Fold:
Amino acid sequence: MTEYFENFGIENTEKTLRLAVSKAKEGITDIVLASSYGDTAKKLVEILEEENLSVNLVVITYHQGFSGPDVKSMPEDIKEMLLKKGVKVYSGTHALSGVERGISKKFGGYGPVEVIAQTLKTLGQGIKVCYEITVMAADSGNISTKKDVIAIGGSGKGADSAVVIRPANMNTFFDIELKEIICMPKNKK
Ligand SMILES: Cc1cc2nc3c(=O)[nH]c(=O)nc-3n(C[C@H](O)[C@H](O)[C@H](O)COP(=O)(O)O)c2cc1C
Structure:
């Protein structure tokens, strides 16, 4: 059963993470989470510890340089803390913008990858993020494309959307399959 939040945003974070963890308990062993600065990652680790559930947790941050030359979004101490707990932390090229973002920023317009991203955003920012981070987690070797994972995204900050998804790599992007929507906001950012 999909849980619908009335509005998008950070206030749905705790509920989203708890719903995702209870879905994982049905037997899904990989969780991919968007956490730019680390707050949502810390919260998910706390819930997993509280629930005594061990999963392959892959945290995806913004790419280095997202908000200025060489700027890393996640502070090093938070990254270190997550790594010590066995969490994987990956920062790399965003699958649904990539070099196309550099082209559209310089010349205007949109390329096909950014059109895919905009189309997915009609389902909500968080659902688009779930697709994107799933590809990034697969391409970085942190999950397999052979089994379903849970992906969690949000609208700018925190989490408000979670799905069960069969991953694909960027070069087989259209093989990606959304299996279940665990939760999402009705009103989008
Ligand atoms: C690779 C990546 C792409 C993202 N793209 C978007 C986006 O297109 N729209 C959006 O509202 N949030 C986007 N986010 C934000 C996430 O959905 C999520 O809310 C955020 O990473 C949580 O970070 P926090 O733990 O620091 O709050 C993105 C995050 C990452 C890591």
User: Anything to note?
Assistant: The CA atoms of residues 128 and 165 lie 12 Å apart. DSSP finds six helices and seven strands in the chain. Residues 34-40, 60-62, 94, 125-126, 128-129, 132-133, 153-158, 189 surround flavin mononucleotide (CB under 6 Å). Residues 125-139 form the longest helix (15 residues).
